[in-house]
Structures are given as structure tokens and as C-alpha cells.
Amino acid sequence: MITYKESGVNIEEGYKSVALMKNYAKETLSKYVLSGLGSFGAMIEIPEGYKKPVLISGTDGVGTKLEIAFKTKKYDTVGIDCVAMCVNDILCHGAKPLFFLDYIACGKLDANVAADLVKGVSEGCIQSNASLVGGETAEMPGFYKEGEYDIAGFAVGVVEKDKIIDGNKIEEGNILIGLPSSGIHSNGYSLVRKIFTDLEENFKEKPIWEELLKPTKIYVKPIIELMSKISINGMAHITGGGFIENIPRMFGNKKFTAVVDTNSYELPEIFKKIIEKGVDKDHMYNTFNMGIGFVICISKEDLEVTMNTLKELDENPIILGHIVSGGEGICLK
Fold first, then answer.
1. Domain range holding 126?
2. Statement: residue 56 has pLDDT above 70
3. CATH number, domain at 78?
4. What is the domain-level CATH number for residue 306?
5. 38 part of a folded domain
6. Tell me, what's the pLDDT at 264?
């Protein structure tokens, strides 16, 4: 008799992984989650106080940064990246994250590796006040190589309809504030892996892989706090496409130019290292976050409150530039 296990799918290992994952997921659940873990669908109540709530969703993955996790066998941080890539995106429209689901695929399931991946997802959800309400683990022998995993996620947040941030309030003279990244985050790793072929290469007295696996910073808590004090006109999560593609996305259908002073802050050492390796600096602003993971657009009169609030929350806000009329999109100085 041929069994499912003989075809390469180990159901018992799947049961073990689910049991381990549940322990991490339970830590994230809010009072608005109405269903138990393991049900066919997750039920979440929209928090009280909203008059016209709008749900905002986003989905993303970690990309080829995962290969560094495979090679170093360190799996407990890339789950944070997965959450960050999703919740930072929906945050750009003013959405407060409600819940998150993950998807993990592999060739051969190792329950402990899968649990480490979900451990990171759980930590990301805790950092963003989102409930990890479910997910899927797919074992696909012959499709993925043994020892390799893929992870993606899906986030849903809520915002009051008249509080949606879509760029319509942006005006000439508005100020751009940047929040520092924690490192490269989760974009540009196809290039990074070509540059850093020796993961044990020394970088700041540590192997370079430690820097490359730093998880993406989650900006939810400081931005939600800032939104309670001022009206933010636009926001951008600096992901693939860097400054050049992402900052203009906050404008919506309006024609503006973001004038960005690239000398307004010190370029982090990891990006200097990439330049030393032969990558053109101008090209990098269209590939990496260059040390700025999130950008907000505010009115001049809100500058003092914004800077003080963010500093009180242990952020290091940087005045990056300003907005001018005209459809150039972005001008790097």
C-alpha cells in the first residue's frame, strides 16, 4: 500500500508543527478575535467606536532574503519581515492593523523550522498589535527543494472612512519626515546576495549575515500615536523601488515633486559597504531604502509636534525635504 508519507508528505510532522505554532499565535490574540485557532475561518469583530469603518488589506512576502536564513539556519527573524512588509503598507493609508494570516510552503516540513518562522510572525504581530488568526503550511515535495521554505502574509487593518490617508491633503510646502530603517529590510536581496557571497565576511566585528538578517522595522506604534495628535497628509513605506518609486506613491493622483536632501542624514554603514562593493550610489536610491524605512508628509505647522512626539517614542525623525508643485515625482539633492 502506498501512503501519503511515502510520497513525501509527513502528516505527523504537520500535526507537530501546528501544535508548536499555536503557542506563538495565542500570544497575539486580541479580545476582538471570536474564533478559536484551527477553525476553518477566522472571525474578527471590528473594534467599537468606528462610525464608518473601512478595511484596508495588504499582502507580501520576504523574498530572496530567505536564502540567507536557509544558509545560516536562523529562521526566527524572517517572520517579522513578513509581517512588517504587510502592516507597514496598510499603515500608509492610516489603517490600524487588526489581524494577520501567514502562508508557509516547503519541500519537506521540519516542525521546528516552521515553528521558528511562526515565532517571528508572532513577534511581528505583537509589535504591530495585530492578531495572528490563522494560516497555511503547505508541504510540496518535488516542488520546493528540501531545506527551503517560502513565507508570505496577509494583513487587514481598519480606519475611519473620513480618516483615510490617500494624498488628497498634500500641498506645496508640506514637510517630509523620514524614520530610520533597521537596515536593508526585505528588498534588494537578489543584488545583496550577489555582492556578499561570503556570509562570514567581517562587518563591524560580526559576520555580515547578522546584519543582512536584521528584521524589517515595524512603524505601526509610533505612527498610530502620531496620528492621534496631528493630521498626516501622506505616508510611504520605502520598499522595492527605494525613494524614487515609493515616495511619489503617497501623492495619489496629484502632481507634486518630493525634493529630498540626501545629505540630511548619515548613510548607514551597510549601504556604504554596498557602494564600496561597486554598486552605483544613484542606482541604490531606486533599489534600497538607504537608511529611511518610512516617510511621512505633514503641514509645516505640525512640524514641532511631530518631531517632539516621535522623539518621545524613541524614534530619530529626520527632516528629509519638502513638497513642490509639478509632476516630476521626486528630486534627489
1. 11-160
2. yes
3. 3.30.1330.10
4. 3.90.650.10
5. yes
6. 95
Q: Are the C-beta atoms of residues 143 and 102 closer than 8 Å to each other?
A: no
- Residue in 213, 95, 114, 216 with CA at minimum distance from that of residue 165: 95
- Cα gap 55→94, rounded to integer Å: 11
Rounded to whole angstroms, the Cα distance separating 58 from 157 reads 9
Q: Please check whether residues 184 and 268 belong to one and the same domain.
A: yes
pTM above 0.90, yes or no: yes
**Any residues with CB less than 8 A from the CB of 206 and at least 6 apart, and which?**
none
144: DSSP letter: B
CA 302 from centre of chain: 26
C-alpha 298: how far from its chain's center? 22
Q: How far is the C-alpha of 118 from the C-alpha of 102, rounded, in Å? A: 8
Mean pLDDT of the chain: 91
97 contacts: CB under 8 Å, gap ≥ 6:
87, 90, 91, 128, 129, 130, 155, 156, 157, 220
Asked if 42 contacts 101 with a C-beta cutoff of 8 angstroms, the reply is yes
Residue with cell 505554532: 21
Is 78 within 8 Å of 65 (Cβ atoms)? yes
